[in-house]
Amino acid sequence: MKPAVVIVGRPNVGKSTLFNRITRTRDALVDDTPGVTRDRKYGDASWNGMNFIVVDTGGFMSGDEDRFSEKIHSQVRRAVAEADALVLVLDGRTGLSPFDTELMEFTRDVSCPVFYVVNKIDAPEREADMAEFYTLGLEKLYPVSAAHGYGVGSFLDDLVEMLPRCEEDESFPDAVRIAVVGRPNVGKSTFVNRVLGEERMIVSDVPGTTRDSLDSLCEINGRSYLLVDTAGLRRKGRVSHRLEKFSAVKTLRSLDRCDIALIMIDAVEGITEQDITIAGYAFDRGCGCIFLVNKWDLAKDMGARAESYYQSIRDSARFLNFAPVVIISAATGLRVKKTFDVADEVYSQYRFTIKTGELNNIIERAVRAKQPPLYRGRRLKFNYATQISSGPPTFVCFVNFPGGVHFSYHRYLVNAIRRETGLDKTPLRLFFREKTGRIDFGPKRRGPKRSKRR
């Protein structure tokens, strides 16, 4: 389970630049215009062996006339509530602002560690510009330049030391771990309650590795399943709020711990952009995926056709064209049991392994059937392939020019592996590495010297 680090600050202090620096991506939009980051942005990061989630929030200002400000403030507060550590970014170029003092008051009530970063300090001589920030009564300030990397390493060293070390739960190693994810009110709670309320199922509650987390162990047809992070789903009917709040951090944590993600979609409302975003989270983490089109009892009465949903999902989530689609009604129990039959198929492929010789034969036949394009006038040579892990099946192919493999040929080789192994319901990962040449295992043996003929 990955801890979450949330970045907050007033507009245009460099939060998104810091997010990009920590995650080593350019996912967050960076612009000089305040308020570019409307929503929260999530990314994965790693430092000194610690993996964690980074959350980039919108600029926080009270009295902001921006029509999105109320939504941004709500997003920030929700992200802070989910944080394991908070990073407050200050602007070392423009100096202290009254809004910084307001943010200080906002962060005093949080229970997690807070790190105060003064951005835009790109050299040691610029650290003198931080003097006025000490009037806030802070013991530790981190001078950094998110744009150039100055001071970021030292800051991250201290950050990861304060993050919680949560050991992965190794209980029930034979159980298939399943996460039910989706936007609010698509029927996740109803589905979980239907599954755990069925007869002939053994049910128990298992403490999860996340805060406020509860896993539910059940047995269906002789196989054990662990529904991860079901706290708040099973007893949703007991809470006073009828509308469930979407928590992306909680979704990411659930996906980090599961083998298979059940991505639930509301059949009445149809597939939405948020559905695709959640599906993207699952795809990025290499989860086995199943789309559940729920509330079919209501959609069918409205004249809905199953074929249109299949096609809509395939068109909207082409990156998950391998994921099965099951049309269900959690309220009536329609095809709920079938979901686990499909999950068994996906899990079997998800844990698939292949012998190295068989894999190389597949690659060889594929290359012989369709030669790769030239790269800078030279032919690509695929020397050797091997499987390095399962869950999902992950392969490495050694090639003379890894950067020269076009994405279309990469897709062609993945499809060749799928076709010959029958892996049509699981994600596959294929990486290319450069062949480093002959491996020297020791001194070369030399044969006996031959006498020269005179």
Total DSSP helices: 12
Tell me the CATH superfamily of the largest domain: P-loop containing nucleotide triphosphate hydrolases
The total tally of domains equals 3
In which order are the strands of the major sheet placed? 8-9-10-7-11-12-13
Tell me which CATH architecture of the largest domain applies here.
3-Layer(aba) Sandwich
Question: Tell me, what's the shape?
Answer: globular
Per DSSP, what share of the residues sits in E-state strands of 2 or more residues? Answer: 15-25%
Unreliable spans are 28-39, 64-69, 235-243, 438-452
Taking the alpha carbons of the first and last residues, their distance comes to 76 Å
Radius of gyration: 26 Å
What is the helix content? 25-40%
- Write the H/E string, N to C: EHEEHEHEEHEHEEEHEHEHHEHHEEHE
Describe what you observe in this structure.
The structure is a single chain. With 454 residues, this protein is α/β, with parallel strands linked by helices. It has three domains: 4-162, P-loop containing nucleotide triphosphate hydrolases (Rossmann fold, 3-Layer(aba) Sandwich); 176-350, P-loop containing nucleotide triphosphate hydrolases (Rossmann fold), CATH 3.40.50; 356-434, GMP Synthetase, Chain A, domain 3. 30% of the residues lie in helices and 21% in strands. The chain is built from twelve helices and 16 strands. It has helices at residues 15-23, 69-81, 98-108, 152-162, 188-197, 248-257, 273-284, 296-301, 306-316, 336-350, 356-369, 407-421; strands at 4-8, 41-47, 50-56, 85-91, 114-119, 142-143, 176-181, 202-207, 214-220, 223-227, 260-266, 288-294, 325-327, 382-389, 394-399, 429-434. 36% of the residues are buried.
